[in-house]
Specification:
Pyruvate Kinase, Chain: A, domain 1, alpha/beta, seven-stranded mixed β-sheet, 38% helix
């Protein structure tokens, strides 16, 4: 089997194309759920507008509260309201490969989750984040560990990574299966 991977340049405005690729991929492979990483909510709004009325479920995953500042999230209240007005919800769960890694590095210099995160970053930051948000969605019961999902993430702002994967719960993280890389940053 031969398939193409779409590569985005580092500073390219890639979000719209990445979201289009995610929707096309979900339809092509009859995948019911798209999991989207969004920090401030801007990418979430763009996705919610694009996916509204489609037959895929969009699950938006933001950073947990306290990630950058105790008791707060980077996802703006205005964006949460707009996402909900468009008919979607935002899930805020623990970023296993980000928060846990940071806490362990601060206290001990590293740890096993840091090795996992750094290995995934060898592909690109978006691959790490796509896997992370899919696992977070699986842990929350939003998606099943028995079905493929399309995971969309990025590096910094916007989206530049689209992956088809079968997520696992954190407890079974190594059962996560990356099936296809549709797009990534180079």
């Amino acid at each position: 089997m031969e398939e193409k991977i779409f590569y985005f340049q580092k500073e390219e405005d890639s979000t719209n194309k990445a979201l289009q690729l995610a929707l096309e991929t979900a339809k092509r492979f009859d995948i019911k759920s798209i999991v989207l990483a969004s920090t401030s909510g801007n990418t979430a709004i763009q996705a919610a507008k694009m996916f509204k009325g489609s037959d895929v479920n969009l699950f938006i995953v933001g950073h947990q509260y306290g990630m950058r500042e105790p008791g707060k999230t980077s996802f703006t209240n205005d964006n949460i309201e707009l996402v909900e007005k468009l008919g979607f919800k935002v899930h805020f769960g623990t970023d296993l490969l980000t928060a846990t890694v940071g806490a362990l590095r601060e206290k001990f210099g590293s740890g096993p989750f840091g090795i996992i995160a750094d290995t995934l970053r060898m592909f690109c930051q978006g691959i790490k984040v796509a896997i992370e948000v899919a696992i977070m969605a699986c842990d929350a019961g939003l998606v099943s560990s028995e079905e493929d999902v399309v995971a969309v993430a990025g590096t910094g702002k916007g989206a530049n990574t689209v992956v088809v994967l079968q997520p696992a719960n954190t407890y079974r993280i190594f059962q996560t299966k990356i099936k296809r890389i549709i797009a990534k940053e180079i």
